[in-house]
Amino acid sequence: MEVYKLLYINGEWVESETNRSFPVYNPANGEEIGEVADGNRNDTKKAIEAAAQSFKTWSKLTAYERSSYLYKAYQIMMERKEELARLMTIEQGKPLKASRNEVQYGADFLLWYAEEAKRVYGEIIPAQRRDQRFLAIRQPVGVIGAITPWNYPVSMITRKLAPALAAGCTVVLKPAEETPLCAKEVFKVLADAGIPNGVINLVSSANPEEIGEELLSNKAVKKITFTGSTNVGKLLAEKAARYVKRISMELGGHAPFIVYDDADPVHAAKGVSLVKFLNTGQACISPNRIFVHRSIAEEFTNTLIERVNKLRAGNGLEEGVSIGPLVNEAAIEKVDDQVKDAIERGASLKIGGNRMIENGLGKGNYYAPTILSGINKEMKIFSEETFGPVAPIIIFDSDEEVMEMANDTNYGLAAYVYTNNLSRAMRAFEELNFGIIGINDINPTSAAAPFGGMNESGLGREGGREGIEEYLETKLGGFSI
Ligand code: ADP
């Protein structure tokens, strides 16, 4: 078992002031896989101080210099792809193939922002006075406080760090307490790429609130970037408001998946089976409400059941496993509660609906891939995010009705539409109040494209051209000549 009682501050792996550590478990079997340092507020202060000092030099490098560090980090991450993927499966639980995909996605951000670093342009604005010139420049915001979740433990870090570093910012990161080992390995990649001391700092902790408090209240931190639950996001946003601190947030989702009557029900069902059970449903863009037109509902449901029947749950290191464990016991309870509530209120259970304690999976957090039909608005699952392997099917009759139901949520992250009618596709794309829409497509994400939510799903965008904007401040110069 690895013991990492270390934090990364000012370019050094150091002990926490507390001298305490906390355990990390493999969700596939409940075994302890490591111990990490339990950082506290003072450790965070030191990390912020280091980031503030190094900002003075990092922000003055040329974009080309910063870009070269990111290229190097990309190369190192690709070299370590397999070991990073294995660690991710052991620590987070997703099947190895999915872990490899995530490491690739994580590395893609390093490469994309190595390139975008060189495209931070300013503007010359025509003035109304003949003797005046306006010049708008873009400068790095300063020290960034980043807080990341456990469900995508590598890519959620690079999605924040790569654009921040490209822009010229320096960072203090607090990773999720469930997956600090992945964070350590990402930091090793960045450190081995030669990123100067103090530019990136890592404070793992079992007390996120304490670390968050320091990141929010410390004047040297100019912006908080957060990915996690809507509840915690709101809490952080409230506190950030006290200091008028910039925030960007990627929060929960409640994605509708609409299958219109002209769509191929078999193709659509295959799509749902792939995207719904990805990461065992623990993704903020996971479909949470599957709307199917009445005329094709039977064929769609039968195909989905067939597909789900073929999914094999287990330890993600084993060949052929397509469903990993949920992150912890609380996650299982939440999923089970939503399923029971739906059944009590009249939903019909098509498959699954139970913990998987048979097949030797008793010690892991496994919940059977589940399909429910006959879902209505009274059920919790209609309005609450599930974050688990449950596909709830809702039948609709008209385009107007489905659009109203799909938009009837406080969330607004991802939505999916299956149709072969171009006008319908375009209307749905325009009318859905979500930030990311997959049209006959179950993977509308890329380091090159803007990702983010509307309403209570978040603020700001990550990835794409937009991602770096979150780390830049615009400064106007008015010159009299
Ligand atoms: P999830 O429900 O997916 O675990 P959370 O929002 O609880 O999502 O966690 C996402 C990240 O936010 C994690 O890094 C976690 O440690 C952190 N976090 C949780 N509560 C707080 C808080 N009160 N202040 C700061 N960070 C927090």
TrEMBL record:
Keyword list, A-Z: Oxidoreductase
Q: Which InterPro entries match?
A: Ald_DH/histidinol_DH, Ald_DH_C, Ald_DH_N, Aldehyde_DH_dom, Aldehyde_DH_Superfamily
**UniProt source species:** Cytobacillus citreus
CDD domains associated with the record: ALDH_F5_SSADH_GabD
Q: Which SUPFAM superfamilies match?
A: ALDH-like
Name of a matching Pfam family: Aldedh
Name of the protein in its database record:
NAD-dependent succinate-semialdehyde dehydrogenase
Q: Which domain of life is it from?
A: Bacteria
The transmembrane segments are none
Q: Signal peptide span per the entry?
A: none
UniProt keyword Oxidoreductase present: yes
Start and end of every Aldehyde dehydrogenase domain?
Answer: 13-475
